[in-house]
Amino acid sequence: MDLRSIECFLRVAQTLHFGRAASELHLSQPALSQRIRTLERDVGAVLLDRDRRGVRLTEAGQAFIEPAKAAVAQGERAADAARRAARGLHGRLRLGFTVIASYTALPGAIQAFRHACPQVTLDLLEINSPAVEAALDRGEIDLGVLHPPLERSHLRTRALPDEPFVLAIPAGHRLAGLSSIGFADLAGEPMLAAPRNVGPVLFDAVTSCLRSAGVEPRIVQEATPVTTLAGLVAAGAGIGFVTRGVAAATRPGVVFREVAGAPAVPLAIAWAESGNSAIGQRFLDVAEAHFSSV
Predict the structure, then answer these.
(1) Number of structural domains the chain divides into
(2) Tell me: the pLDDT tens digits for 54-88?
(3) Range of the structural domain that residue 70 is part of
(4) d(C-alpha 13, C-alpha 57), whole Å
(5) What is the mean pLDDT of the chain?
(6) How far apart (Å, rounded) are the C-alpha atoms in residues 225 and 102?
(7) What are phi and psi of 8, to 5 degrees?
C-alpha cells in the first residue's frame, strides 16, 4: 500500500464525503474511489461503507485510522530526512586531520559546520598526513585535512591557506636575542624534527633550506606531534620548527622566531576520486568560507 492512498483514506474519513475529499486532494472522484478500493484490497478489509445515505467508517476503518496517521507521519519524516541528506544537512561525516591542522582555523570551521548542520554526526580522527591519505584510500574517512603533495595522485584536493613555519627556541637561547635569523645562523645547533616518514615534504623542505645555507642538519631527536616537539624545546633538548598556529598556543620556556626563507606547510582538504557526498561538499563550503574569514 502506498502513502498517497492512505492519505486519501484519511481525508475521506475526516470529511465522510467523497466529493469534498476529492476536491481537497485535487483528484477526480473516480480516481479517489479507485485508490480507496485498492487500499482496501491491500489491507484485506472494507474500511468505508458507501450507500445513498453517505459514507461511514467500518469497524476496520476505525481501527485503521491511528496506525494510518502514524504511517503518514513516519513517511513524511523519512522523506524529510532523505531531502536533508541530499542537501548535506543530515547523516554522518568522518573527518581525518593532522595535528598541525588542529592548530589552524579548522576547529572554528568544524564549529561553524556543527552550527549550520546540527543533524550531521561528525566523527573526528587526528592522525598524521600519510595516515589520512591511507584512510581516504580505504574508505575509512570521507574527508581529510592534510599536507600536499600527496603520494596518491588520484585523491582530489582543495587547497587551504598555508601555515608558516617558525623556529621554537628555548628561552634565553642565543638565537632569541637576534633581530633577524637566517638558516646560516642555525649551524651546529641540535635540532628536533618530526620523522621523515610522518611528513616527508616538510622534513625535506627544512633540510634543503639548511643545506642551501651551507648548514648540515644536526638532528638529535625525532619528535611527533609538533606539540611534543615544543615541549622538548622547553626542556632544552634542541631547537625545531613548528607552525605559527602551534606557536600561537604558546608554551612556557619557549620563544618563537621567524627565520628568513623558512618554508610554509601546505594544507588541503582531500577526498576520494569516487566523489564527495552532499555532506562532504557542504563541509568544504563551510570550511572554505571560515578559512577565508580569519
Answers:
(1) 3
(2) 888 888 889 889 988 988 888 887 776 776 666 65
(3) 3-86
(4) 7
(5) 89
(6) 11
(7) -60, -45
